[in-house]
Amino acid sequence: MNKKWIGYIILISVAGLLLYNSVYFKKLDAKGITAAAAITDLDLAQFAQQFFTKTFTPYMDSAVEMNSFVQQLKADAKGTVAKYAKTQGIGNTAYVLVKGEGTITSVNEDVVIAAINTNDNVKLNTGVYFGNAVRDVTGKIRMGDFSNTMDYNTVSTTLNKIVQTQIVVPFKAKAAKGTHLQFVACAEINTEQVNTDNILLLPVKITYK
Which of 113, 126, 132, 189 could form a disulfide with 172 if both were Cys (CB 3.0 to 4.6 A apart)? Predict the structure, then answer.
């Protein structure tokens, strides 16, 4: 074999090795989703949208009723968080999907307040959200599903954008005092200092009655 062909073979081998190392493969098993593919930014965006549509949206049916959740928190915060919440096992933040209905009593710049009964109000976030509730509240996406934290966090950011554009922005534009609504929302709980009066909900579904 002449040197020219040897050179071609070496070049092809090196190129193949570089291509192999430039991507990684993963498998995500979540309700409604099984994916095994090389990951790119486009793939992550598609995965986030598919997850929101096929996994997160059906999961809304399992949301706990807000009134009941608050009362249980007041009676037994630790037990209630253990019963309903999802965490990544890091830090002291837990997430719960809640639902309820009420009447808007106040519309502020980044918060809509609604009365859900004669004694309790809820605060619905209408500002920009930077947390991980949408990604983590179902427990279907785990850090171990990803080969690096950058992609794991990119999925969270993308899911936040989906909620912001599809739910939060339209809700903020339409919110008015006296409006009766039903909501499904992510509750972010500090497990070290549970305060039922200071739970800010991220709405993921709003319907009007």
Answer: 126
